[in-house]
């Protein structure tokens, strides 16, 4: 094991399709990191298939992933966020209703305890009941991490918008660390359906590298007069542009990607984000996030990039707020406990 | 065989998933009708699987379906429309570019001939090259049939809008019988993807009967302030409304249906149909058409219903225009050759 001995917290970003475990030290530094494909859906499916109780299967998976850390640092607190806290997870952590202050989740933590006596505290998701109901689970912790620089800000908190691309992208409004509202777009899932299972996939060929020209073409169509009709009215163009030779088969997927993200941004801009002219804080370090950055910039937004370890940072701050860990200043001259990865990067 | 002996034409509405064959008599009356599940996709797939040339497989299928009629009425002309004329069909009937007069398709017919010497004339589809390219194949003939009453109108032709619901719904603008433009919405295909393969399907239960309350709720959401963000921003509500108890699992599919058709109409109304205040001629006799009727009426449109046999009627008029059949007036007192089913019904 390559970690030092100042480990303070195990933090689990345990979503539907994967589990990322962080061993964290003073001031929220990441000492070690483990990635597992054993997302909550895999775990609950395995439990069903083997007739094992779900709780037992989650405990076993947790022990498999974090066993060495638990042995090396007995009594270390453990915090988790994501679908591990859903009704198909380890234990259901009831949603908090927005507006909700992310920096004070204490009463909402849901505790499970393994047969070995290790306590795991699960951070609750959020529910919005204004207009169409909406829920997030896991992303709220990423938002807290992304906002880490603002947590200790002494200025009056300003409204900010955070976007978290993914299978379901999440748009979150915050004032300081208080989430005032959010909305979900099924853009990533529709991309997969359209490029893998629809008639649009019939004329498509997979490409190794992103074709930004095709992506931008999709963005342009979504912003055009024809695009004002929305996705249902433009999607067929991914077929007809190939038929007429204006798009190569290898460009279809990136064109659809640009079209969908363009429609998402146009739709959000016309409804949920209407009237907002501030910056957008973009969470994520994947190629998908780069697509959103490109699309946001094309629509005139100033984009800030959040830490790629926002979930870990958010869990650290949640653990701090819940009294599971204490702030320590290894360097007496430090005036902030932010790690370098917490600072948002201007793009 | 129950037909009389005045058969004048065999008309094939041969689409991707089915083939409908009509034996037509004087004045375009339907004497007999055969339905087959041997759509063009099935035929070409069978050809591939068996190593039979595609042309031969289409010929064999045609003979299987229409053999008795061909034997009883030697030399009867045969006309066809739909995907049988695509590049995966019997023979490719090149698209005509709009604006195109549906009542004068003559030069565009593509002839194939069976080994027995039977000629089959395939009606070309249409291509629109203004803005995003778009194509239709088969629907143009339904439009001609739906407009049959207008074919002989002596008044100055007015602009009309025809909608043809389906896996891909088609919206067609015509002046008289001249198609001036059209657009395709992938609404039906997205409905299938969302209700069968997406995360929305996980909380859904199949219902035996349409739940019009749920359908109308979907329409309402698409028309609401939240709906102005488009489908990507509202689709997730089909999940969250179930989670919060506002929608029953058995209502999800009809809610999604209403949401999608509502978004289609809102999108079309904001783009392709912007400024149009006339009536909409609705083609189709399925439950899907009833959904469109309901949605159009909810948006304030006056809706006319086209003949349920619009394709057959359209092929009759195409055959007339091409000189394949002649008009006959069985009743000297008749002043129109419309059959009763050609008359559009007010709803």
Name a few traits of the molecule.
homodimer; 347 residues; alpha/beta; seven-stranded mixed β-sheet; six-stranded mixed β-sheet; 11 helices; 16 strands; disordered C terminus
Short description:
Two copies of one chain form a homodimer. With 347 residues, chain A is an alpha/beta fold. Chain A is 34% helix and 20% strand.
Structure description:
Two copies of one chain form a homodimer. Chain A has 347 residues and is of the alpha/beta class. The first copy, chain A, is 34% helix and 20% strand. In chain A, the strands form three sheets. A seven-stranded mixed β-sheet of chain A has the order 6-13-12-11-14-15-16, sandwiched between helices. In chain A, helix 3 crosses helix 11 (310-321) and helix 5 (187-196) runs antiparallel to helix 9 (252-270). The longest helix of chain A is centred in the N-terminal third of the chain and has 19 residues, at 54-72. The model of chain A is unreliable at 150-154 and 330-347 (pLDDT under 50). Chains A and B meet through strand 13, helix 5, helix 7, helix 8 and helix 9 of A and strand 13, helix 5, helix 7, helix 8 and helix 9 of B.
């Amino acid at each position: 094991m390559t970690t030092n001995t100042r480990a303070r917290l195990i933090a689990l970003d345990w979503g539907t399709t994967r589990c990322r475990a962080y061993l964290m030290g003073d001031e929220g530094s990441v000492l070690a990191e483990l990635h597992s494909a054993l997302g909550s859906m895999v775990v609950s499916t395995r439990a069903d298939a083997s007739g094992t109780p779900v709780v037992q299967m989650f405990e076993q998976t947790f022990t498999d992933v974090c066993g060495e850390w638990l042995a090396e640092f007995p009594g270390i607190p453990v915090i988790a966020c994501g679908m591990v806290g859903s009704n198909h997870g380890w234990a259901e952590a009831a949603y908090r209703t927005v507006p909700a202050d992310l920096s004070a989740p204490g009463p909402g933590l849901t505790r499970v305890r393994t047969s070995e006596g290790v306590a795991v505290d699960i951070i609750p998701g959020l529910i919005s009941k204004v207009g169409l109901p909406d829920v997030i689970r896991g992303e709220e912790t990423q938002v807290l991490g992304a906002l880490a620089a603002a947590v200790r800000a002494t200025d009056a908190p300003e409204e900010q918008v955070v976007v978290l691309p993914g299978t379901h992208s999440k748009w979150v409004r915050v004032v300081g660390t208080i989430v005032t509202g959010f909305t979900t777009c099924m853009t990533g899932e529709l991309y997969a359906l359209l490029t893998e299972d629809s008639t649009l996939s019939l004329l498509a060929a997979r490409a190794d590298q992103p074709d930004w020209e095709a992506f931008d073409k999709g963005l342009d169509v979504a912003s055009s007069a024809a695009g004002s009709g929305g996705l249902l009215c433009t999607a067929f163009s991914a077929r007809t542009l190939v038929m007429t030779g204006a798009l190569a088969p290898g460009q279809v997927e990136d064109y659809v990607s640009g079209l969908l993200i363009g429609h998402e941004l146009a739709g959000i801009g016309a409804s949920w984000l209407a009237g907002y002219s501030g910056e957008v804080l973009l969470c994520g370090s994947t190629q998908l996030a780069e697509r959103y950055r490109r699309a946001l910039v094309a629509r005139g937004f100033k984009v800030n990039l959040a830490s790629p370890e926002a979930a870990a940072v958010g869990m650290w701050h949640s653990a701090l707020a819940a009294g599971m860990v204490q702030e320590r200043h290894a360097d007496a001259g430090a005036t902030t406990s932010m790690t370098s990865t917490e600072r948002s990067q201007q793009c």
